[in-house]
Amino acid sequence: MAPRVGCFLLAVLISASCKVATSSDPMCTEKEANKTYNCENLGLREIPDTLPNTTEFLEFGFNFLPAIQNITFSRLINLIFLDLTRCQINWVHEDTFQNHHQLNTIVLTGNPLIFMAETSLTGPKSLKHLFLTQTGISSLEFIPVHNLENLESLHLGSNCISSINLPENFPTQNLKVLDFQNNAIHYISSKDINALEQATNLSLNFNGNDIKGIEPGAFNSKIFQSLKFGGSLNLSVILKGLQNSTIQSLWLGTFEDTDDQDLTSATFEGLCDMAVESINLQKHHFGGFSPSTFRCFTRLQELDLTATHLTGLPSGIEGMNSLKKLVLNANSFDQLCQINAASFPSLTDLSVKGNRKKLDLGVRCLEKLENLQKLDLSHSDIEASDCCNLQLKNLPHLQYLNLSYNEPLGLEDQAFKECPWLELLDLAFTHLHVKPSQSPFQNLHLLRVLNLSHCLLDTSNRHLLEGLLDLRHLNVQGNHFQDGSLSKTNLLQTVSSLEILILSSCELLSIDQQAFHGLGKMSHLDLSHNSLTGDSMDALSPLKGIYLNLAANNIRIIPSHLLPTLSQQSTINLSHNPLDCTCSNIHFITWYKENLHKLEGSEETVCANPPPLRGVKLSDVKLSCGMTGMGIFFLVVFVFLLIVLLIFSVKFLLRWKYQHI
């Protein structure tokens, strides 16, 4: 297309042609050049020829391969990861992977396996992860044991297995994860567990199996990284069966559709004879909840009581001095004091997230937790007009505080004076009321991360962020600035240590050229989902080597004098902008193609104008903005006529002057 000019004759002199460079896309999606490919759900019956021999990671699920053998993947000898989920595989023949020495992960999930040859898994020198989930296996004898010496994880969930008795000579010395969830296992014998004695720090998953019996002494003197018995109806059977064992993490939670027994003090008697660091009891009901319920919990370091229908914890709980982490999410407390925090004096991590009632913070409810470092009170409908010093009294070591997704909070001056060691503060989606010309964060000299997204902030308060001397990450997404403009004198001027700044969805129309003055340490700037134009890039000139996100703005044309500003950045995202693909933007389009290595989201960086090129990737557009043959012809004619006209004019003037002497 030719740019507009004042004269009609000149308009026909310069013309441009545009065309799209098209190429046939391969069926498989390339994630990393020559290495990683996704060929899922393409109806394939064989490995396509378009896949290079150098492929290392292949996702080939939801295709059709009823049988796999040594010629199926023979060309892809560099495979490291192979996902064959739901490919309707029935047969895995001998030496299928004999040439795949680097293969360490095979995923056969969801295939109705009928036969696996004894040597079907030979070949890989370090096969570490094998997924046989939902394959119809009813006995562990079905699994070929050849070449499993290096196996670290074996996933056998959602099958018909009733016994965990491993085949003779099954190698377990390197096994770290053994997953039996959602099978038909009801009894565990000493022989079953003894077969695993060579494994160290093993994680066993029995979730979804209603374990009704464990042979006494089966777990005696055994050490486990993790045991999961989620969904078991009788926890007392589980805990008695685990006596004299050592377990780092014990998951005993239940599920919504499980009708289990209420938990009482008697349920946990077996826990007194175990060494457990962490227990999860989510979604259970407690019956007769009293201090004695916790009698066998005294050695615990972590306790998760998520969604256990609690309205309060009993006072008088003793001996919980070892507990470091307490999770009370999704319960029904009226006030924070109802958790009786004084019973857990050594807590460093407390979470009361997603409370099902409006939670009143109360006064001094947590003052006995002077060692507390992390506190999550998000999604709990908390509302306070003068937060937060009385509510957070005596928490001098608190480093992480989450008050996001709550009701309006009024922040007083130096609202977090009781928590001077805070490093991360999350107030996202909580409407904040701050008095003009005040900073509620003034004493937080160690704060590094502050999330103020969608807080309905008064962004005209230039003092709002004063005192944040070490702030590195600031998120003010979704807050609006006066007249849609980020002015020269803005609230960012007091946080010169910023490295990451998120200003997305702020309805910005323009940015002053000096708006980011003094923010020379910036490495990441997100300005996406605003209404900025190309002219706003002048404000980015002080920034160098940053990740710059300008996606989903109103950028049509980027003037050539701003291209050096873009060139000095490390990564740029210009996707979802209404970009102009005409000769008026030729300098930017040329720059774009030369700097593809710096650009993110190139698949969504497309033309909006002219209509013939709408939706075409910018990298595929070719513009010819010079003169065509016709244009040159008209230019020659134009110049010739101009010379002739000039000659006649000179002759006429000379003749007229001579006649009037």
UniProtKB/TrEMBL annotation:
<keyword id="KW-0391">Immunity</keyword>
<protein>
    <recommendedName>
        <fullName>CD180 antigen</fullName>
    </recommendedName>
</protein>
<comment type="subunit">
    <text>M-shaped tetramer of two CD180-LY86 heterodimers.</text>
</comment>
<keyword id="KW-0325">Glycoprotein</keyword>
<keyword id="KW-1003">Cell membrane</keyword>
<dbReference type="InterPro" id="IPR032675">
    <property type="entry name" value="LRR_dom_sf"/>
</dbReference>
<keyword id="KW-0472">Membrane</keyword>
<keyword id="KW-0433">Leucine-rich repeat</keyword>
<dbReference type="InterPro" id="IPR041281">
    <property type="entry name" value="LRR_11"/>
</dbReference>
<dbReference type="GO" id="GO:0001530">
    <property type="term" value="F:lipopolysaccharide binding"/>
</dbReference>
<feature type="transmembrane region" description="Helical">
    <location>
        <begin position="632"/>
        <end position="654"/>
    </location>
</feature>
<dbReference type="GO" id="GO:0006954">
    <property type="term" value="P:inflammatory response"/>
</dbReference>
<dbReference type="GO" id="GO:0032497">
    <property type="term" value="P:detection of lipopolysaccharide"/>
</dbReference>
<dbReference type="GO" id="GO:0001875">
    <property type="term" value="F:lipopolysaccharide immune receptor activity"/>
</dbReference>
<dbReference type="InterPro" id="IPR003591">
    <property type="entry name" value="Leu-rich_rpt_typical-subtyp"/>
</dbReference>
<dbReference type="Pfam" id="PF13855">
    <property type="entry name" value="LRR_8"/>
</dbReference>
<dbReference type="InterPro" id="IPR001611">
    <property type="entry name" value="Leu-rich_rpt"/>
</dbReference>
<keyword id="KW-1133">Transmembrane helix</keyword>
<dbReference type="InterPro" id="IPR000483">
    <property type="entry name" value="Cys-rich_flank_reg_C"/>
</dbReference>
<dbReference type="GO" id="GO:0005886">
    <property type="term" value="C:plasma membrane"/>
</dbReference>
<keyword id="KW-0732">Signal</keyword>
<dbReference type="Pfam" id="PF18831">
    <property type="entry name" value="LRR_11"/>
</dbReference>
<keyword id="KW-0812">Transmembrane</keyword>
<feature type="signal peptide">
    <location>
        <begin position="1"/>
        <end position="23"/>
    </location>
</feature>
<dbReference type="GO" id="GO:0045087">
    <property type="term" value="P:innate immune response"/>
</dbReference>
<dbReference type="GO" id="GO:0002755">
    <property type="term" value="P:MyD88-dependent toll-like receptor signaling pathway"/>
</dbReference>
<dbReference type="GO" id="GO:0046696">
    <property type="term" value="C:lipopolysaccharide receptor complex"/>
</dbReference>
<feature type="domain" description="LRRCT">
    <location>
        <begin position="577"/>
        <end position="626"/>
    </location>
</feature>
<keyword id="KW-0677">Repeat</keyword>
<keyword id="KW-0399">Innate immunity</keyword>
<keyword id="KW-0395">Inflammatory response</keyword>
<dbReference type="GO" id="GO:0034142">
    <property type="term" value="P:toll-like receptor 4 signaling pathway"/>
</dbReference>
<comment type="function">
    <text>May cooperate with MD-1 and TLR4 to mediate the innate immune response to bacterial lipopolysaccharide (LPS) in B-cells. Leads to NF-kappa-B activation. Also involved in the life/death decision of B-cells.</text>
</comment>
<dbReference type="GO" id="GO:0050829">
    <property type="term" value="P:defense response to Gram-negative bacterium"/>
</dbReference>
<dbReference type="GO" id="GO:0031666">
    <property type="term" value="P:positive regulation of lipopolysaccharide-mediated signaling pathway"/>
</dbReference>
<keyword id="KW-0675">Receptor</keyword>
<comment type="similarity">
    <text>Belongs to the Toll-like receptor family.</text>
</comment>
